[in-house]
Amino acid sequence: MFRFPELLRRCAIVVCGLLLASAITAANSAKPTAYYGYGEPATPQQIAGWDIDIRSDGKGLPPGSGSVQDGEIIYEEQCALCHGSFGEGEGRYPSLAGGEGSLQDARPHKTVGSYWNYTSTLWDYIHRAMPFTQPESLSDDEVYAVTAYVLYLNDLVDGDFVLSQETLTQVQLPNEPNFVPDPRPDVHNKRCMRECKDPNTISIKFEAALHVPTPTKVELPSENTAGESVYRASCAVCHDSGIGGAPVLGDASDWLARIGKDVGTLYSNAINGFQGDRGVMPARGGFTQLSDAEVTAAVDYLVEESR
Amino acid sequence: MSKQQELDGLIKSIAAAGEKLPGPERRLFLKQGLTMLGAAGAASGAAGIGAAEAALPPGVPSWTKSLGTGVVTNPYGEPSPFEAHIKRRNLEWLTADKIASISFTPLADLKGIITPNGLVFERYHAGLPAVDPGLHRLMIHGMVDRPIVLSMDDLMRFPSISMTRFLECAANGGMEWRGAQMDRLQLTHGMLACCEWTGVLLSTLLQEVGVQKGAAWILAEGADGSHMSRSIPMDKALDDALIVYAQNGEPLRPEQGYPVRLINPGWEGNTCVKWLRRLKIGDKPWYHREETSKYTDLMPDGSSREFTFVQECNSVITNPCPENPLKGPGKFWVEGLAWSGRGKIKQVDVSFDGGVSWRTTRFTSAVLPRALTRFGVEWDWNGAQALLQSRAIDETGYVQPTYGQLRAVRGTSSIYHKNAIHTWKVNNNGSVANVQIS
User: Fold this and answer.
1) Quick check: A121 and B293 CB within 8 A?
2) With a threshold of 0.90, does the pTM exceed it?
3) Contact B435/A186, CB-based, under 8 Å?
4) Does domain B314-435 have CATH number 2.60.40.650?
5) If we measure between CA atoms, which residue out of A104, A122, A118, A98 comes closest to residue A175?
């Protein structure tokens, strides 16, 4: 048999427990906790370092500005070697200007001016991905300036224009109204099994010339495979084509004077980068993760192949 | 000192002697070495002909009468050296360089529906980054109650799930819109693969961070130099989007986004952001470069379709194909692959006369939603020219269209989402060519 005080004590525990539980629930609904609770809360400082996206309404743009004139200098130094002085695109690199009114042609020419829908996209992309070999290397003001210059190359702003956090969304791109939502499925076929078409109407309209079947030749390793693979991955982008004044692989006359230098100079110029008469050789070709040994192996490969 | 140690020592000292020589001499040294090896090879090659005869019945090959190498000779196994031709290939002229470029899966040589990890096509926009998993973080923030940063260890503690799904670049076959251009299957359809992907459902992570009212889109962003970014609608995120850290049973390959990527089953490959570092929740799409300048479909009237995510129902015959010619008249097992971003494949029909009459095929693999599905049918080839086609139907009833039907609506400039019925022409000599017919 329970004595009265004992019963009271037990009741008190239960009531207290209930009160406590409801207090916790109240706290939870005010500041809910995660179910698993793995990981760390993202701090505002951490977020600030990675939160680089700009939206089409300009949300995310940092304070700052840049002029067409300043942009021209940056563009000539850091963009023209691939995209051409007028945005026409060197070799197979994308062109950034031109193509107005070409979208219904047999060969449409899609560029910032003729195809893109928002100016914010240009700022966002240059900031996140360009210049190609050194993404995220431009300051915010430099991005404003070079964005302004690409707009200028497309005749979308005047030569004295200044692009800023305030003015960016005011520059509307001509093709914006022409984007529509996905209407698919938009093409309809029916399942037919017999006499689906007249055999006499069948003719071959296109035939791809047959080059293959696949070669099974085993390739012998070349003497400097490490250097060659570094070269292919990191240096070929400029040194295969000679873009921006880079001496071309295998062009002995182009390399003669350079090979005449002491090899230590070539190594250090490739590792640290240098400005020559012909153009800019970025440090490690812009691939900062390469070790010294990898860069020198690539230089050896370049030199051996270019004697 | 054992014989083997002696031999190792000798090889090392020869290599070291070669190392010490200056460039040109070293090349000569190695070239002479190679010539000698070549001569030795030729000799053994000549011997090889006799050996081949001796190996065939009633003879017994050398490997049956000797011991092979021991375990862990090759701790991470590789394919037989006789299969060295089965590899990814690229097209030099397609892109300015190999860093923002693509390579193709060798579909002609693959069996079943799973693509081996080393053969899954590559697509980079700033090359292959070397990501250290210990230092990699996934940040989830924006319109959420609890923004978090997850390490790979954190991510792997969540409940996991595995799904076999295809992965296809939106531009697969894009070079064929204006006419037959590519001379082989690897290039006409090879931006395609299918793997078992393992990871955490994105919906689990969204629950964990507490998505706020009004949230409708998610920006997924990569940790490579291109900071690849795409806007993903919330519906897909809550449906089957997967945060993936393993493929076909092993950690993701670097080429596939190691240590973690997004997979949006059935959607264009570009939305499946690799080396995933950030998910930002918002109320509107971002309109970034890969969803405006690229991955939008230009129509004949000059308009462009945006956010065209789904890879529609498609199929192709993989045997025969230019890489797998016919060896002469007789019975032949014709097979191929079908897939649909909208679900399961319901039926595949094959024509041998350019689409006049069709025969239904049977499935020779599992039939999974949004996965490659293998079909096959027997064919008696009489040695005459034939026009082979396959036509897939998915569970929504959608029938794969002809080039004529596709071009009538979309013209020839849209680059992406080409899923027309494909034609192989079998010539009298058994060779196979890529053609387009009226």
Assistant:
1) yes
2) no
3) no
4) yes
5) A118
